[in-house]
Amino acid sequence: MESIKQQKYPLIENTKEHAELIAALASGVFILIAWLLGKNDLNTLSILVYVLAFIIGGFAKAKEGVEETIANKELNVEFLMILAAIGSAIIGYWTEGAILIFIFAVSGALETYAMNKSHKEISALMNLQPEEAWLVNEQGELTRVSVSTLKKGDHLFIKPGERVPADGVIFEGTTAIDEAAISGEAIPVTKLEGDEVFAGTVNMSGAVTMEMTKPNSESLFQKIIDLVQSAQDEKSPSQQFIERFEGTYVKFVLIAVLLMMFIPHFLLDWDWTTTFYRAMVLLVVASPCALVASIMPATLSAISNGAKSGILFKGGVHLENLSVLNAIAFDKTGTLTRGKPIVTEFIVREGIDQQHMLSIVAGIESQSNHPLAQSITAYAKQQGLTSFHKAQIEDVPGWGMKAIVDNTSYKVGKTDFVGREDAMRFANGVALTLADEGKTVIFVRDEEGIVAIAAMKDTVREEAKRAIALLKELGIHTIMLTGDNENTAKVIAKEAGVDAYIAECLPETKVQHMKDLMAKYKHVGMVGDGINDAPALATATTGIAMGEGTDVALETADVVLMKNDLSKIAYAIKLSRKMQKTVKQNIAFSISVIALLIISNFLQAVDLPLGVIGHEGSTILVILNGLRLLNKNI
Q1: Can you name the CATH fold of 339-459?
Q2: What is the spatial order of strands in the sheet that 440-446 belongs to?
Q3: CA distances from 424 to 40, 373, 430, 436, 579 (A)
Q4: Does this model's pTM top 0.85?
């Protein structure tokens, strides 16, 4: 709705967006006019124009300060600025007071711009959502309808170049989809019938029909928007501390200003005008504007940067926590490895035709949904088999399967299921050698003994190796958690390049292992698929979910990688450390400027205009420094 208004009335909407800056500039023009009138001895008219400059330039900040003071029952920096400007006018320093209002208004406008710059990332996301879609009726006719009227089960037609209007699956057709808005990945993804598509992504080539599987309020795209919006609204511990500190500090400044109005007159023989003037200067230069602006713009910029790169932070606290991680634990299956074992060897008994036996085994395994069974079936197809022997099977949970193929009985499964001694003797004990290589071995037994074995291995992702190397460069200790036996775990850990591993790790013991790691390394991250790793993700200092942008990943972790790219973890940590460095720079700079201006005021080395420029200039600089984090190349 907002985007429609902007299209219809762009001038009005742009004027509203920049109202603070326009008011500030108008105030500056009136100050110049008032100064010229004063130069020509039109003092009364000059004061009236100064008052107009006060009202126009200071109204927005004065209103904000009063409203926040009433709402929070706590004084703030806006309140200090109002008092300083009024105080300057009382003692006849109309020009200085007006300049204070002008620069404070410009600073406020720039701060608003800084916040809007970050929030525009979300506005840009929201604008990617189509407002209309092509609805396909039962007769196959197309009707242009509002996306808000769509419901689950509707069939939608998407033309090349159009955005996907809702979450769903391809019902008919083939195309390539640009999913950069969801995952940050620039390379289009090929989509076939039955593949998932997400709202806000772009149909690049073929015309397709999709079936809507979720209402728009529950789409992945909407959840991402909600998540980033809530992350921007959630304040980090540092920001919360600064805001609590602000109220106490403002009270301290007001007490100091009251004392300064009297003590220098009696102790240093300053005249009353100088004493009051210096008190007003103190009111300006001691205000913590720059300190208050040291954190929020930097945090919002970092969150926006992450969102553009496919990294979603659920709040500033999690962004801060990443910077202090000393170790990261990785779930093995589906995180470090592909989670889909591949057959590396298929060995048969002497005198047996390998292709014939593979067809028999594939005929048995094709009737199971077990990942290992699916791997054998896929291997058979890779070997050129287009059809398998028909088998009657009986599933034996936890062990394997019994089957009858061409009136011959077979057992397929673990060592003890087929007979340990025969299994270990088969092919001169090759099973032990394969196990030492970290491979899982499945045995096939017929009525004469072991007839074949299939060795499988879950392969390590290439990007996982790169990610581990990047984390080591950052000084992060890496640990792999796996339910595999010691031999398999050792091989996978070596291949992945992790520093340590914990083998035979059951899902229910992962939490305890995480607690042990946190006792050793203090701040530990956990990377998992966001489903069975949920308890461990919650226990870790920072839980990082992999999952190709799944709903479960969005709900369980503190940080979500929208694409299964582990190298994004190193980028997120660098972004977090850069943010912390920026915040520390801002705080150190703002405190130094405040201290320098306060000392200079006591030495009467700085006047009100210079104090205003120094103070508000430092505020502008820390805001701009925070905005540097919007740069994608950290």
Answers
A1: Calcium-transporting ATPase, cytoplasmic domain N (3.40.1110)
A2: 342-348, 449-457, 440-446, 408-413, 400-405, 392-396
A3: 108, 21, 8, 13, 57
A4: no
Q: What are phi and psi of 352, to 5 degrees?
A: -105, 135
Instruction: Indicate the SS3 state at residue 346.
Output: strand
With a CB cutoff of 8 Å and minimum separation 6, the contacts of 460 are: 336, 337, 338, 492, 495, 496
Catalytic residue list contains 331? yes
| Under 8 Å between Cβ of 27 and 53 | yes
The domain limits of the chain are 1-128, 151-214, 339-459
Of 114, 233, 77, give the one whose Cα is nearest residue 626: 114
- Please, which residues bridge with residue 132 across strands? 146
Place of tokens 């047996």: 352
Distance in angstroms (rounded) separating the CA atoms of residues 293 and 357: 72
**Closest of 382, 411, 417, 383 to residue 398, by C-alpha:** 417
| DSSP track, 576-600 | HHHHHHHHHHHHHHHHHHHHHHHHH
Torsion of CA 32, 35, 39, 40, to 10 degrees: 80
Q: How far apart are CA 104 and CA 154, in angstroms?
A: 54
CA 98 – CA 76 distance, rounded (Å): 20
Amino acid (one-letter) located at 558 = D
Class level of CATH domain 151-214: mainly beta
In 308-353, beta strands by DSSP E: 311-313, 327-331, 342-348
pLDDT attached to residue 8:
46
The identity of residue 604, as a single letter, is Q
Report d(CA 98, CA 100) in Å as an integer.
Answer: 5
- Token pair for residue 270? 């300053």
How far is 451 from 411, CA to CA, in rounded Å?
10
pLDDT tens digits, residue range 169-220? 999 999 888 876 665 555 678 888 998 888 888 898 889 999 999 888 777 7
Residues 6+ apart with CB under 8 A from 203: 158, 159, 160, 161, 162, 163, 164, 175, 177
Closest CA to 392 of 408, 382, 403: 403
- Active-site entry in 331, 446, 529, 565: 331
Which position has the higher pLDDT, 138 or 231? 138
What digits encode the pLDDT tens for the residues 53-111?
888 887 877 777 777 777 777 777 777 777 878 877 887 778 877 887 887 787 777 66
Cβ(132)–Cβ(144) below 8 Å? yes
Closest CA to 156 of 66, 216, 101: 216
Beta bridge partners of 134: 144, 157
Mean pLDDT for all residues in the chain: 83
Give the side-chain half-sphere CA count within 13 A for 82: 17
Secondary structure tally for the chain: helices H, strands E = 26, 22
Is residue 128 a contact partner of residue 163, using CB atoms and an 8 Å limit?
yes
Residue 388 CB contacts under 8 Å (≥ 6 apart), including other chains: 359, 360, 362, 363, 366, 377, 380
Q: 């870790």: which residue's tokens?
A: 540
Please state, in angstroms and rounded to a whole number, the distance separating the CA atoms of residues 499 and 485: 18
